[in-house]
């Protein structure tokens, strides 16, 4: 497998969607190619960083504000529109 | 807490308790998707509001065997797209078959300590990077790698095939990896001193 091919298959490799033979080829390439190993490590870390973003929730005042705005539209429409 | 059946029935009757529970369970997901797609907080807020209002109007047509959250993501995705069109009516559609450049920034920041990777600044850098991706790639990353939807759900939300979803995700990851590698490069250099 070449570096180009490894990069092409990278997401499929990470997501365990490659067939056994391609997966083995990818592992062999990674064992001998420092550059592709770094690309793999950092892409996997990026994905974990993505997962971590679920810690970020709409907080405090903004949450309350959005809730009120939507509630207002739903339940307290001006006369003639409900 | 209402179970799913009672929640759905409550939403259909415009029961305030059901609305509160539905809002609390979903507002963060809708907001993150909108922020990733649009980049601006005010735009994300507008999408949140429009999404919940549309959901209430359409709840009578919701199929109970589907998942409420996925259904809501789809509404949010469409609202975000409409707002994108309003903001940038001219953006040309990129060609998904175009070949990507090989990764160029090859510093290994994957072993930086957790506290450096989980900062507010990294969060903002990542969302800024997502919202500067080509438009069609943004939701694929948010839905799969942040919200951890399956490929099938991700495809359904965007109204595209699973293979198209995988292509978009792959391109998004490579481009984001490049941006973040540039961002972390200096910190890795400092670590090495
Ligand atoms: Zn290589």
What's the helix and strand layout?
The complex is a heterodimer of chains A (82) and B (193).
Chain A: H1 3-14, H2 20-32, H3 34-52, H4 60-75
Chain B: H1 4-12, H2 16-38, H3 41-58, H4 68-87, H5 114-117, H6 120-131, H7 135-146, H8 151-158, H9 162-192
Helix pairs in contact in B: 1-2, 2-3, 2-4, 2-6, 2-7, 3-4, 4-8, 6-9, 7-8, 7-9, 8-9
Residues 3, 6, 29, 33, 35-36 of chain A line the site of zinc ion (ZN).
What does this structure look like?
The complex is a heterodimer of chains A (82) and B (193). With 82 residues, chain A is an all-alpha fold. Chain A has one domain. In chain A, 73% of the residues lie in helices and 0% in strands. Chain A has four helices and no strands. Chain A has helices spanning 3-14, 20-32, 34-52, 60-75. Chain B has 193 residues and is mostly helical. Chain B folds into two domains: 4-87, Rna Polymerase Sigma Factor, Chain: A; 109-192, Winged helix-like DNA-binding domain superfamily/Winged helix DNA-binding domain (Arc Repressor Mutant, subunit A), CATH 1.10.10.10. Helix content of chain B is 71%, strand content 0%. Chain B has nine helices and no strands. Chain B has helices at 4-12, 16-38, 41-58, 68-87, 114-117, 120-131, 135-146, 151-158, 162-192. The complex binds zinc ion. Residues 3, 6, 29, 33, 35-36 of chain A line the site of zinc ion (ZN).
